[in-house]
Amino acid sequence: MVNKKTKKITLTALMITLIFIGTFSIRFPNPTTGGYFHIGDSMIFTSVIILGKRNGSIAGALGGALADLLCGATIWIIPTLFIKFIMAWIMASIIDKNFSSIIGAILGGFFQIFAYTIVEAFLFTWPAAWGALPGLTMQTIIGFLIFIVLYHIIPVLCFVFISNTCVFFPF
Questions:
Q1: Does the predicted model carry a pTM greater than 0.85?
Q2: Which among 7, 43, 49, 85 is most buried, taking Cβ atoms within 10 Å?
Q3: DSSP structure string for 121-149
Q4: Alpha-carbon gap, residue 92 to 90, rounded angstroms
Q5: Distance (Å, rounded) from C-alpha 149 to C-alpha 137?
Q6: What per-residue confidence (pLDDT) applies to 17?
């Protein structure tokens, strides 16, 4: 028999890895701010669905920060840790209030765009922050669209492969 706590830790580690891969493997650098655009947000949204508020937020924060560390964007490690955690927490909080995961992802994505723009203005300048805004917005939208596709596939995968452990998909 598999211990539920062990299974939760394993799934969280798996989602940290998937977020890291989604963030690290396909990225487009932004020379203005030293950051980059990626598709890892789709995996963060997905982690909230699979793991719930606490572990989904932790996975989002750690997976994103680890990617920043290993790709050399060290100035972004701490902001990413907080912004990705809060983005996932917002999504999960919206879901907890019986709203759609899609609405939660949209509001979490809005927070991310706002927060990174403020951090970029603080670290660099407002023109640099405004210059990065279209790429950040596209990153969030593309992550959201990939999440929508995954959102329709996850219930089947959870049921078949993970044995009914998805938090927000009742079976």
A1: yes
A2: 43
A3: HHHS-HHHHHHHHHHHHHHHHHHHHHHHH
A4: 5
A5: 19
A6: 97
Task: Summarize pLDDT for 8-61 with one digit per residue, the tens.
Answer: 999 999 999 999 999 999 888 877 777 788 899 999 999 999 899 999 999 999
Cβ atoms of 20 and 12 closer than 8 Å: no
* Spatial separation of the C-alpha atoms in residues 44 and 50, rounded to whole Å: 10
Type and span of the H or E element at 29: strand 27-30
> In this predicted model, what pLDDT tens digit does every residue of 119-135 receive, in sequence order?
999 999 999 999 999 98
**Is the per-residue pLDDT at 105 higher than 90?**
yes
φ, ψ dihedrals at 150, nearest 5°: -65, -35
**What is the phi-psi region of residue 164: left when phi exceeds 0, alpha when psi lies from -120 to 50, beta otherwise?**
left
Angle at Cα 81 formed by Cα 25 and Cα 96, nearest 5°? 100
Record the tokens describing residue 112, joined without a space.
């991310």
Alpha helix positions (H), 39-125:
40-51, 53-71, 77-96, 101-123
Distances in whole angstroms, Cα of residue 96 to Cα of each of 49, 149, 156, 165: 11, 21, 22, 17
